[in-house]
């Protein structure tokens, strides 16, 4: 999965296999908490995807400033 700017610049990406692996693990088994599970969502896939999108926005917004 990739988050790109309109000009094609990739600001964030995650390998689909890694995404599937990380969402199939128990939260306490995850060493890298970049994609940690949120208590807002019960589904680990949804929580991880939301974290992915938030990180993409965090990385991409400074590039859109004039």
TrEMBL record:
Gene Ontology cellular component? endoplasmic reticulum membrane
Top-level taxon of the source organism: Eukaryota
What is the name of the protein in this document? Selenoprotein N
**GO terms for biological process?**
calcium ion homeostasis; skeletal muscle fiber development
